[in-house]
Amino acid sequence: MFAPQAAAPQAPAPLAPAPQEPAPVKILIAGGFGVGKTTLVETISEIEPLRTEERLTAAGVGVDDLDGIESKTATTVAMDFGRITLDDAGVVLYLFGTPGQERFWFMWDDLLAGALGAIVLVDTRRLDRSFAAVDFFENRGLPFVVGANCFHGQQPYTAEEIATALHLKDPSTPVLMLDARSREDVRACLLSLLDQLIANAGAAAPARSGRAG
Description:
By secondary structure, the chain is of the alpha/beta class.
């Protein structure tokens, strides 16, 4: 009699690839005083946002322009910080809200370090308060989108009218209507910015390869 042969050992099953970590992307949320930057970060952040707000006091009379936002009682003196993971885009966004008051603008260059893009939030009732933010990012070549915050759910101007009033150097800069209290609106604005960053990276790649050749 013949002894039965032992079964050949089976090859181990291939290991499943480790899940890819989302790529970190730093985004600035900028704009004038009282346009809704802190609200936007609070609305979308998946973590408890870091806020550096202080109460407005009589010491700010004549310094802080409260025209049109007389009910505002606090202001950001350093930055806001939040985080949101966009699994479908494969990124985790680190959101840094800039201070809006002119006396704190010196911090903007520090916050700019490492940022890939920005949302410039504007209030069309006080559009001149956001001219400085637009100029800042245009002069430094940082891609941005404009978010027109619809206070009280209303926006009397079109995107084209807002773009014209802001004198945007690049006419293709997206101007989006949003409510900073709406998670869906804020998410759509962030995705629009990511689309712009991807498009810019794709346009830059052929230029780099051409120089290399």
